[in-house]
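Attaching the record inline, Q. Sequence:
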Amino acid sequence: MTERTDSNDRGIYDFADRVIADMNKRNLRAFGRLSVMKFDELNVFKLVGETYDSSAELAKKRYKAIYEDAYLMAFSRMGRKAEDPDDDIMNDWLLDMLEDFDAVTHYRFNEEVERKKARTAEALVSTHDGTRIDRREVDRALKLWTLQVSQYADRSVDDGMMGAYRKAGVKYVRWNTEEDDRVCADCHALDGKVFPVSEAPRKQHYRCRCWLSPVMKDGE
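Structure, as predicted:
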């Protein structure tokens, strides 16, 4: 088999990292408001719900931008003229991703948003001192939310690249690692292996920066 490209000279996660950093700043401000809100039980549940809802909607918009960037970059890396992804296909992809069970997070995005709302509100109600919210609970909630948001941003990159490969008629992909001392044993075992596009393995841990590159059989 002859590989078209496995170069990672433009980090495929660069745009996603910038988006994640921006979302982290916005979420820091949003969750920070929870720690200074006026306490009453109804107020807590209302504001916690609004915080998660607005943050989730922002993330969903950003995931589409990340997918599109990765999709267009994949065409560029294949030396092909860029083709904008179809809006309907991209919308369907987003809905599927948010409802799909993720192998890394072990939950479904939309369901987990609802669980985090309930858990965070209950934690803030049960730990308040009568006048103030326990900032530690807010910080804990923010940390877990940031982890969730970043995982699905990374997945948006991978799905965008694979969407482009399928559109371009690529039949095989190769798993590539950074080949440094930070590569985990599971990813190291996959390095260089070629899979049919339909059988490409999913990432198995947070912030995995391995990537799949298109491969063609000799003569194709």
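Residues 9-169 form one domain. Residues 41-77 form the longest helix (37 residues).

More tomorrow.
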